Amino acid sequence: xxxxxxxxxxxxxxxxxxxxxxxxxxxxxxxxxxxxxxxxxxxxxxxxxxxxxxxxxxxxxxxxxxxxxxxxxxxxxxxxxxxxxxxxxxxxxxxxxxxxxxxxxxxxxxxxxxxxxxxxxxxxxxxxx
Length: 129
Hints:
Blueprint: H1 12-34, E1 38-46, E2 49-57, E3 60-68, H2 75-81, H3 84-97, E4 105-113, E5 120-126
Parallel strand pairs: 3-4
Antiparallel strand pairs: 1-2, 2-3, 4-5
């Protein structure tokens, strides 16, 4: 984990959002493990950005973006708001750092979380751009 800049103290709102994100990632990781995915990396930081989860199942590497929203009605907007280019670049960075995985298939999934609902797993949610 990269250290925070000493010059700026995060706002209370930012800290709350970060905690909510960590809880969502933990829930998504557990959900995927129940579906027999193997957790490879969590919150993997690259110069291009962060990958929430890197998991593996049936020989395929899966890069997972976790999105938590206040309600299920926000799903379409959430899916549209995903920065696919950032995730794709970060995934290529991960693959370059793990040359033993180069021959495996990979894809991009999204886990949508909303209060009071089961996590929604969008498999192969978008192509590698």
